[in-house]
Structures
1.
Amino acid sequence: MNKFLFFKISAIIFFIGCTSNISKSSEIDLKFKALDSDVTGVTFNNELKSNNDLNIIEYLYYYNGGGVALGDINNDGLDDIFFSGNEVNDHLYLNQGNMVFKNISKTSGIANQNNWSTGASMADVNNDGFIDIYVSTVSDYKNLKGHNRLYINNGDLTFTESSKKMGLDFEGFGTHASFFDYDNDGDLDVYLLNHTIHTPRNYGRSDRRITRDEKSGDRLYENLLNEGTLEFIEVTDKAGIFSSSLGYGLALSTVDINNDGFIDIYVGNDFHENDYLYINNGDKTFSELSNKKLSHTSRFTMGVDIADINGDLIHDIFTLDMMPYKSDIFMKSGGEDSDKVSQIKKDYGYNEQFARNHMQLGSKQGIFKDVALITNTYASDWSWSVLLEDFDNDTDTDIFITNGIFKRPNDLDFINFQSNVFYENYNGDNDKLEQDLIDQMPMLKLSNTFFLQESEFNFRMLGESIGIPPSYSNGSAVSDLDNDGDLDLVSNNINEEAQILENQSNNLNNSFIKLNIKNKNGSPSLGAKVIVHAAEKTLKKEINNSRGFASTSSSIVHFGLSNSEIVDSIEVKWLNGSSNKFYDLDVNQIHNISPQNSNLTSDFNKDSDFFELEEIDFKHIENNYLDYEREPLMPERLSIEGPAYVSSDFNGDGVKDIFIGGAKLQSPKLLIQTSEGLFNEVNNLAFSQDSQFEDVDAAVFDFDQDGDMDIYVISGGNEYVDGDPNLMDRLYINNGNAVFNKFPANLPSTNGGSISSADFNNDGYPDLFIGSRSIPGGYGLSPISIIVKSTPDTDSYFEVVAQSPIGMVTDSKYADINNDGIMDLVVIGDWMPISILIGEGDNKFTNQTTNYNLGKSSGFWNTVEIVDINKDGKLDIIAGNSGLNHKWKANEEFPVKVFLDDFDENSSLDPIIYYNFFGDPVPFASRDKLVNSLPYLKKKFLKYNDFVDATDIVSLTDRKDIFETKLVNEMRSMVYIQDKENKFISQPLPNQLQISSIEDFLVDDDKIYYVGNFSGYVSELGPSLSNSGGVLIGFNGYDFVDHKSLGLPINYEGRHIDKINNNTLLIIGNNNNAFRLNLDEK
């Protein structure tokens, strides 16, 4: 009985989260044809018949299925097909041309007996010019016997099983194997990917990954063929490879990820364990660097492929998870960890993971930036195998994904049923209990998913409309099986015949070129890189055949060329460091290429598009306050808004100095700049005494009119109620020598958001706007913000001339928007438009947002700059938003909405958010979170399947009259160009600035520097960490000349960027170091 109790608990904590919105446009010319077995002769069916000894309850990976391997076993120019079977025998089919195949399983000697085969690999293990076959298995578990098998190709369509002879007869939980030359000695070594089963010992701290497990741990074997012996020896520990029971290995790829000439390893792990990114050190060892190269990964990684997706000649990584794209399935399926569970995992040493696909774009800096959300490729349901190829020959990389699970154990109604089973009613009849549990698991057959790349960050989701029928597919592989110039697909299906999809895009008449690249032994040259120059396009691929899930694709390299009629040149970079170039190759042909005499070349790309950074003596350290513990329905933390920053010449020496505010329990710091550009800290007692405040923004002005700059600091943090002394603003008076004293005044005490200063009434004294960020405890409500004028001749010193709940303010700027000589005010924030307050004189302002064409600009705005960007004499607006790399998608037709009311009448505000999910409105909070906050909903939605019908606020709450509704219809970072009629014309900033939140701008002549990233979203949204900062060069409001990265560290959250002298930028981060950047280096 204990095993059922454990399965129940583990499913709740960890397993949750492992026709349609797929486009049906008739405009798509790409088509596939699913070939019938009567035509192909391929009758393989991975049929599973669960029984009392082996089923999904006993073995959670029961429905993971098998793999496919494609390769030319007889060197006749046609790729053949190998299928691995779980409860059925493996099959080998000989390609006879024209999509006709002959089953040679028995005559070839590969038909297995009583083996649970999983991964299928093809590689020339002995360098004899013939491809061999390696099969991974689950063995020595329950009634499963056997071991991994290595079939050596005899060259006559027969194979000899030689795994034990060569040291590769591994017994355990095999998933897949990848053959690659890890030491560049000319023979193929092998990485064995293995998985584990659920036992209590698998849950614990991450340092348990150094404990070896004999059945579940991964293995690395070195081939001694180059030393004269065809034998494999294990080098796992020596090479630095983890081999523990924490490794739920399901995905594997071996490519030169960092382009240094040595092949690296990517391992995708299921459940709580990190994905592994092993960087090859070139000395037969690896360094696992996932936490230094990847901000976060898929949580239940099941498939991976690595290739250049965006055409920048740098490897990108695509990993698969199980997030549904159909709203009704999404709302009743397990998803992300709760914020508390996420924090526990971090405390246990695990990297951040999210239950969705990831498209990790590589960079010259060597770090990866996930863009799956902006590309809308993040959800493809329970996905297994991903293949990155150009399927329509237009030069752009497309994405094919197999998906579906025969039984869905992440269905929340099933998990609820399982959690509430009365085990005593079964009287120890475990077989009946298991069968009842299995029967409760729902089934859903979906078509495999296809993402057609149409432009940068723009993919169209396709499926049945292009000829892909529904199936339960697992492993898949790609090859031009009929040699007609386009790539076909083969999938291993559960309980139905294998799927062969004939690509019919040759009707598009796009050109192609295929390259059969062999090493000196006549074997596929795995690890070689191929660069094609055709017309104005440069394309790059690396030969890697272990791809997708448990499968091997063809080693023939295929390039789509669109309408190019000739290839200008092809460069092949061999793994030994040499290269060959070939010129004027004909298109629409296959070319055989082998090494020729050449000089050794350096393959490592040392160019960079970022700047060198130098730390300065300040690190912002946030206190660990978790806003959602008090306000569980809020989507973001408002307690991490700092640090405050401002610069000025505080000591009168003509050089700019800086003030940096602290987080709670951290004192502000004043740094005085020397003439050499160095910074020296000046201790101020007033600052050190105010460490209890959270400094979120600051402004400088000469308050006392004595000729030096004083500092006004606003406080925040979202921890205290309005009026609390810990939220009081502060004014520090400068004595002229950068020594500050706190001015005794009763200043505002709100959760501050922004402060701006200008003399808007032209009386010679500085006036202020003080914007409030939120009402603590009332997320979504607009706090009171104020405009004050200086009254130095009165005891109050300031007088409020206007106040309004304008919004949840994050930034503000004074500027003369309409060129009338009177200062106006621009205010931005969350759930509000870019607001224009026009100064009317006599201390009056009117809100003219709509008149300036900004009434529909409501967003999650972070920063604003006012500048004449196009040099036409009128001020324009540059505004940083949350960006498009976000789960929420918003526009005028489908805005994100927050409904604010006390829905359960318990005297506390309940902010309920709805957003558009692949065409359907869904509540942002899950049923569980809503029920916890609004207990009366539990009776209304007894089952998760009932919750599917909560498609709007009325069907959810039965309430039509809502206290307040706010919306967001713009999530892009934007530039607004002011036209001749004083209307602002919207223009999105370039895509590079949309992959993360933008937190600050610095406009310097024709350059726009920026910093970004924000980690404060709740786990359901995940952090925005894909662009820490860069510079747009030559931007005129519409076009730009170039874009460069600033090279900030991975996950760096920039908050301020400033130019502190002619050649130096200063960058201030939240909960991070501050950096100085020398512009002379670029």
2.
Amino acid sequence: MQNGVSVQFVGPYKGTVPAAKPNQPQPPPLYGTPLVSSPYPDNGGYAKGIDGAFLSNTNHFAIWGRAAAVSKGLVKDAMQQSPADLMLIMLGFNDMGWFYSDAYGTIDSIATLIANARSVNPSIKFAVATVPQRTSIRGREDLVEKTNIYNNLLPSSIAKWTTSQSPVYIVDLANNYDCRPSGCEAGYDGLHPNAWGEFEIASAFTKTLFNDLKLGSGPLAVPDRNDPSLVRDLPAPANLQVFSSPQGVTATWDPVYGARSYDITVTINGSPNAWSATMSQSNRWDSQWSIDGWEYAVSVRASAGDAIKGPYTDTKTAVAKPQLAPPPDNINVNATAGGITVTWNPPTGAYSDSIVEYNVIYWDWKADHCQYTRGAAFKSSPAVITNLTLGANYLVAVVTWNKNGQGFPYIANNAVPGAGTPAVPGGVVVQSQDQTSVRITWSGSASAGGYHVWARNIKEAGSKLHLIGNVTEETCNEQYVLFPGVWNYAFAVSAFNGNDETITGPEMVAPSTDVQAGKGTGPKCPAKEPWCPGGALSIPPGDWPRLAAVSFPDNTCNSENQSSIVQELQYTLEMAAETQANTQRGEYFTTFFDAESRANPDFHSNAANVYKNIGDMLKGIRYKVTVTCDITTTECTKKKFIAHMNDDNAKKVGRVNLCDRFWTDKRIVSTESMLSTCKTQTPSIVDAQRSRSAILLHEMTHTMIAMDYNKKTYDYAYGYTFCRQLAENRFDRSCMLQKMDGKGHKFLCPDKTTGAESMCDAKLSVRNADTYSFVGTGVWFSSKCDAAITLPLMPPNKSTRGRRATCPATSDSIFFDEESPIVGSYVHFGDSYGAGMGTGTTTTDKCRVGSNNFGKLLYAWMDDASIHYEEKVCSGDTLEGLAGQISSWSNPDSASLGTLSIGGNDVGFSDIAYNCVITPNTVHWGSTNRGYCTDAEKKALDYMSDTGTSGLRLRLKEAYLSILKKSGQDFFHLYVTSYVNFFNAATTDCDDTSFHYHWGGYKPSSDWPMGRIVYLSTDLRSELNALVDKLNTVIAGAVSDANVEHGLAQVHFVDLTKSFDNGHRWCENPKGEFHEPRQSRDDTWFFLSGWGDVSIDAAGASTTNSTEDAELASIVSTGKIPLPDAKTCYAALGTDPDPYAVAMCRVSITISDDPSGPEAVRYRSASASIASGDFEAQEVSWYYPTRQIKTFHPRSNGMVAYRDAIITAIKEVGQA
């Protein structure tokens, strides 16, 4: 315009390439699908402030990335649609840069383009520019030479092309555009023009237009490079939003006009080692390969090239919540004649229900090939990919795309198309660098995608080769920390092409050497070539994400702790990966795993797989690791743990909770501090295993997924000394328990006779968490510290008074955790003695459970809310009722402790007390009652004396075994309580006492001649005590029988006799200090009918009147005292009836037998009082259920005695 030349620009396009749209990631097109052509987008704008006249005259035929080889075929149609008189041509770089052709081919393409344009307008004029250089790209030195050749050919070619009708002129752009291999001040990215470069290009063309075509009054002047008018205004992007999304984390912002792209800084979980810079073409960014729970901090700036940047925005954060599918399983790669075929099994699990396709990524990774990664998308297996470069070595990985985006890649075996099965590697040479390290070399094969290096200890009988290295880039491998010396090891190599692998070649033994470990100067493997030494454009596999995945579900871990945790878990991930690949490096594998397990030919691979699983967990594959720092948990506050792991295998989620000791215990150190000094001062394995990364690896093994979905590890042994003893089959776990804090621990190695903690089987090293931690510590730290981590000498055993001779004199153990506490859950079974009927507040249902039963008192003593308590008691239960309680037991897997009272109802104690002592039925003469008494006693004795299959002893044994079977855990212990003697049979004062229901007392009035009052003679008291003793003998025998049959002493007899014999029975009055019945004597631990309970507040229980209140309310609500039919009530009771139903049936029969007797009189009086609304009448209270049935049962202080006896037993067993 400034030259006054009227110009009409023509062509099919008007604008520039618009900014990319902020869309979510889209899956690539399916392999072999033809590309669908779409109109060229040209709705992008021009620079701000441009002349308005220009905006109405912007047609053109210029397209980003267009080559002359393409334009030559399109120009004719363009000319026909938009006739032109003058064509300005700036083509050629893309032809040579993107391998369309060399310099000569590019000259030919320009010639064809000119000819095709002339076919539409024979008089058209041309101005053809030389091709500028660009800044150097390593490996593309050819581009410099090709550009020079082209520019040298162009003048002579133009001379041939030009005609008088259609002249062709040269534009010397190469010498007027300030861009060269050494630098490009005119370009924003080493080639494409910045604002100053646009002036230089325009100026170069105007020189030709002015000088040759005589247009205008002179060439365009180029402003100074630092002219302020050339500065592009790039403000910080506005409205930055960073949020959780199905891709993980997404950031959006308002577009900045003039930005060609956007620079983005991303920090993950605040870690300086998890920082990255990336870019986006649009005003949207989506995280790639993120892990649920990662926190991303994102900041954005606008960019218009390498040196034209705006300011960054403030940082905003969001937590990743990806909903992406995992990679497929069982990937198999087969090299074919012209490509590769990849098969797989579809993944399962979260977000695999919306899979769109699978993208097979393949990459000719050779350093000097400088190839892009490429992909081929398929809907399902198999993926058949053809037309690959024969003989090229391709890295292969598979990615799953679902509706939300692509998940993590799974890197499979390398493959070489057209190569077939490689030859067995030959020429294997093992060179000893020093006494513990070797270099292994072999002859390579062009058919091999890679090599596997194998080793075995030739001094171990029956040892087999195991995989120690995976090599794809060279034919050399170094191995370190080969204790006790390299000469103990043989090595072999196999080759693979995809999943087609050769056998291993001949074994070669490392030669002996006198060079001390770490002092060797022997041969090393050559340094790896830099990726694409000429300028790599693709991503090396080592750069694919290996960050540890961790999320923080709450704010209990502060930001500083979170940063440290992420770093420690990163080290744990590296430890797992290193140990997986080198499980048998050094002496750690043979030191900490027992010999019998190591003799299994599959054991090495199984152990290595544990470390692989831990690595997968920490990378977020099939499992989510979360971390909290809740120092208020019971494990942290009462059990003094350092950390504890909660594994939810069903949901594939694990939570590690770190207690304050994880940070404050001075024996525990950061891994970084250990690594900072270990090369100058090699640590012992005791110190190295106290690094936080090793502790976290210990915790990871407490999951089923780490152990291949088998039983997770337990903490059989802690510390170097005990772990070595475990592997050597000389570990007595009771030695370790002596050192452990807390009031109880789970028994893992119980003695088969006593049930107490004892010697552990050496094979349990395979199930021991610290074992894996020690092996991983030794292998990884030896690699990181360039020296073998030392194993200290074992301490001697110490034999002193009160200490077992098998225990070491010292121990290095730190008790990080216990996978399960003493009582994961507690189950309480029982009859009316177990139910504590009458104590505290007793329920009004048929089971009549007292709030002060000994199960509840024991649970209160545990004082641990994390322990689940399950109460399976019912007052009327016999063994038949117990079977139903066992069947409905809901948490047997987690229970460590159970209590049981059973047998009293089976032998008919209620009938014996009714007929032998209280005798309420007044129609019967004393002799009749005595007959009923002896009949009941005989029935009980016969049942207890029966040693056959229908006898009580065998049935009790089967019940105990049924509970053990339901538990299925060798750490579960069942405590079976005895019954107790009711009387002191040696005193004489009670000879004048009767507990008769109606007329009892001390020296009651004579009942001659009927003799219905039963006196507590020494003979009767001895007789009844003997029945109790007999029952206790049967129970104790059944406990012994159960343990013998089970093979482990997991059932324990708790004898309460001595607890009650110490002055707490009836008739404890040798000198007649008082007379029975003495209700006010709290030292009597039994109820009689109508007796109140005693307060045991100091024991943590309560005594209230709420039971009687509730029972009265029930009577009031019905308006009467229900009385069953005397003729049918017994038959209607069924098995295990409500004791009150039994009592009222007896009342009904008594009234029926003696309508004018005391029971009938009292019942009629109580009924009349109820009818008149006098509910407080004394006669009414006689029919409260608990008053009727609690006689001969322990009061609350008796329940405390039961609890205390069980606590003593638990301590003897070692559970407390």
